[in-house]
């Protein structure tokens, strides 16, 4: 059972190759695969517009300026992928030695609940789509949980991907291409039950309606029903394509170029992974050293955000250096060109032409303090010159003294290229007028010395270094009549200076008549000038490129700031939730305290109630005793009444009266006797 959809981006018309097979079953899951910045978000957004479930707004990654239409990525899937990569010390860009088999069984077991939760959320819907670029590398770990799926592979021009990654993450072009190849090779190497449907991003941008319609038909052919392609026509915009690539581009990695051409033809070119991993490993090592330098610097970034921005700037600077190296390699560098044919030459350039310098001749070498002149001095010594120690030539006064004392002594004076010198001052934070004034004074000092000994002084203008010193070597050998030494002249490496600052410095010099006059005299007195004297148009072009790079960097920083703001809002929401939970816990604690008090009161009342029950029992017993006595009294009363009503009681009444009388008299007598005795 196979199905393959391919869009040829370089064809005038969109052509589809669709192979169908018999016995296909219904498929609910759509897995969108592809390298970062390849257009997987656009394809997933189109699938969602067609009717596939992607996730709720709370489940998806928020929108950022770097992708204003949204990433269409689920937070839970992203978190799961990051945990899997980080468990083996890898990241989405750090995969030089990554292999999915390195993820341990213990890690898989710990994340089993997250796998199950993701599968439950997605499979609760008839048709769902999952987009996550890291799945290219990690799909073997997800496959047991997400079965019966149709893979959709999104392919974009590797150079366009690399340029986008360079702009967003500061990754060099070679690294972006190697990552592109590794991600897509991982998709190609996996034994899919259903062969991936392949879409070219360029075709999607150029022909969105045809591309999405053909995708819907291909999905329908493999059993995915219920999608409406007409709803997705407005999702894809031509303005989404900000980067591009060409077949003749100078940035190509040979392996990636072959792989890309094979993908365009619907073929698979197996790239030797070792060559790609070596590129990635080299960058990872350099990036680790760069991060270590940032953290160990005198003023390390105070916050993680500042650290990320400093790292991004450092990476972008390395990308600029890489671009300069490529420009120089293909012949677009203006740095080490000889003086123009119309440049004025000093009289000494004619008088010394064709003469060999004697071994007894001396050369006084004077260079700026921040320029390492030792390689030049060593080369001159190897060429047969006697170079005076730098301690004897520390400034214009000592140089004039040497020339005055020894008529055979010559001088080689090195000065900075004016606009580079001014640009360095501006880069260091100097004010425009102060930087120009310092340059004017230093130039006047140099020219004052040259005017007094014009025939014996050779003036050369150099940047802080020159990547190709062979032209300078030829000029000095010809001018001084030197014997060509076996060793080649090597100069310090030129420091990188933004082209925009050099344009500003050149315009600053040309803004005043005095500085223009000094510049003209300096150029007329110069034997060798690495600046070439006429590269303003190139500088403006480079400055424009620097400006665009800075705009991209600011946009990326803005995106990072917006992302941090969103994270801050989320943190505030979490803090509010935490505060609410603390309040709930406080109320719960207070409720428990009140409950304990109530329990104590209930216990006290229970004791009182038990006491009352006891007293009530005693009272009941007393009442029963009173009732018994009352009954007994009633019985006695009834007996008395019976006796009194009897005949015998009545017959004996007179006798009782006599006896009572007698008892009364006796009692009276007893009382009188008592009184008499007392």
Task: Summarize this entry quickly.
This protein is α/β, with parallel strands linked by helices and 678 residues long. It has helices at residues 40-50, 75-86, 105-110, 112-123, 135-142, 158-169, 173-189, 201-206, 208-221, 254-264, 273-296, 304-329, 347-351, 374-382, 396-405, 418-427, 432-452, 470-480, 499-510, 513-524, 536-644, 647-651, 653-677, and strands spanning 29-33, 128-131, 149-155, 197-200, 362-366, 386-387, 410-416, 457-462, 526-529.
Describe this structure in words.
By secondary structure, this protein is an alpha/beta fold. The chain folds into 3 domains: 29-279, Rossmann fold, CATH 3.40.50; 347-534, no CATH class; 540-659. It is 57% helix and 6% strand. It contains 23 helices and 9 strands. The protein has helices at residues 40-50, 75-86, 105-110, 112-123, 135-142, 158-169, 173-189, 201-206, 208-221, 254-264, 273-296, 304-329, 347-351, 374-382, 396-405, 418-427, 432-452, 470-480, 499-510, 513-524, 536-644, 647-651, 653-677; strands spanning 29-33, 128-131, 149-155, 197-200, 362-366, 386-387, 410-416, 457-462, 526-529. The strands form 2 sheets. It has a 5-stranded parallel sheet with strand order 6-5-7-8-9, sandwiched between helices. Strand 5, helix 14 and strand 6 (386-387) form a beta-alpha-beta unit. Helix 7 (173-189) crosses helix 11 and helix 12 runs antiparallel to helix 21. Mean pLDDT is 78; it is low at 1-26, 332-360 and 532-536.
């Amino acid at each position: 059972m196979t199905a393959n959809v391919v869009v040829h981006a370089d064809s005038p018309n969109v052509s589809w190759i669709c192979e169908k097979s018999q016995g296909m079953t219904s498929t609910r899951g759509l897995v969108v695969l592809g390298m970062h910045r390849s257009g997987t978000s656009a394809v997933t957004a189109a699938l969602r517009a067609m009717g596939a479930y992607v996730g709720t707004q709370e489940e998806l990654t928020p929108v950022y300026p770097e992708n204003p239409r949204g990433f269409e990525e689920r937070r839970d899937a992203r978190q799961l992928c990051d945990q899997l990569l980080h468990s083996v010390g890898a990241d989405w860009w750090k995969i030089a030695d990554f292999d999915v088999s390195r993820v341990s069984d213990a890690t898989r077991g710990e994340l089993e609940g997250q796998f199950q939760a993701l599968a439950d959320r997605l499979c609760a819907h008839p048709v769902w789509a999952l987009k996550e670029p890291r799945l290219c590398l990690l799909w073997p770990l997800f496959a047991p949980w997400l079965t019966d799926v149709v893979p959709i592979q999104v392919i974009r021009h590797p150079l366009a991907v690399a340029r986008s990654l360079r702009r967003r993450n500061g990754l060099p072009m070679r690294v972006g291409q190697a990552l592109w190849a590794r991600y897509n090779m991982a998709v190609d190497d996996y034994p899919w039950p259903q062969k991936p449907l392949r879409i070219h991003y360029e075709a999607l941008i150029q022909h969105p309606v045809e591309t999405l319609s053909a995708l819907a038909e291909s999905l329908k052919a493999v059993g995915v029903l219920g999608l409406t392609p007409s709803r997705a026509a407005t999702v894809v915009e031509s303005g989404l394509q900000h980067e591009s690539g060409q077949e003749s581009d100078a940035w190509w990695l040979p392996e990636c170029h072959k792989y890309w051409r094979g993908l365009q033809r619907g073929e698979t070119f197996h790239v030797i992974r070792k060559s790609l991993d070596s590129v990635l490993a080299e960058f990872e090592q350099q990036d680790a050293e760069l991060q270590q330098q940032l953290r160990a610097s005198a003023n390390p970034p105070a916050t993680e955000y500042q650290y990320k921005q400093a790292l991004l700037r450092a990476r972008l600077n390395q990308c600029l250096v890489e671009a300069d190296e490529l420009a120089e390699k293909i012949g677009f560098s203006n740095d080490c060109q000889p003086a123009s044919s119309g440049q004025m030459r000093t009289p000494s350039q004619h008088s010394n032409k064709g003469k060999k310098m004697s071994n007894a001749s001396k050369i006084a070498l004077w260079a700026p303090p921040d320029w390492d002149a030792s390689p030049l001095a060593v080369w001159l010594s190897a060429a047969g010159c006697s170079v005076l120690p730098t301690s004897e030539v520390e400034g214009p006064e000592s140089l004039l003294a040497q020339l005055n004392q020894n008529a055979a002594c010559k001088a080689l004076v090195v000065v900075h290229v004016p606009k580079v010198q001014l640009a360095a001052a501006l880069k260091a934070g100097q004010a425009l007028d102060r930087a120009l004034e310092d340059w004017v004074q230093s130039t006047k000092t140099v020219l004052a010395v040259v005017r007094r000994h014009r025939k014996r002084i050779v003036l050369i203008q150099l940047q802080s270094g020159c990547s190709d010193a062979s032209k300078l070597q030829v000029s000095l050998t010809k001018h001084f009549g030197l014997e060509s030494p076996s060793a080649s002249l090597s100069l310090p490496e030129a420091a990188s200076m933004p082209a925009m600052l050099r344009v500003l410095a050149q315009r600053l010099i040309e803004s005043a008549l005095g500085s223009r006059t000094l510049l003209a005299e300096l150029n007329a007195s110069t034997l060798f000038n690495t600046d070439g004297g006429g590269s303003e148009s190139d500088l403006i072009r480079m400055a424009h490129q620097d400006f665009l790079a800075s705009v991209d960097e600011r946009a990326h920083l803005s995106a990072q700031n917006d992302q941090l703001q969103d994270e801050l809002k989320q943190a505030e929401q979490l803090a509010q939730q935490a505060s609410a939970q603390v309040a709930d816990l406080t109320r719960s604690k207070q409720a428990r305290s009140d409950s304990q008090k109530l329990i104590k009161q209930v216990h006290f009342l229970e004791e009182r109630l038990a006491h009352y029950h006891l007293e009530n029992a005693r009272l009941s017993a007393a009442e029963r005793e009173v009732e018994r006595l009352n009954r007994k009294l009633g019985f006695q009363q009834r007996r008395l009444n019976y006796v009194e009503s009897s005949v015998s009681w009545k017959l004996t009444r007179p006798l009782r009266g006599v006896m009572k009388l007698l008892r009364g008299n006796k009692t009276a007598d007893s009382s009188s006797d008592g009184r008499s005795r007392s």
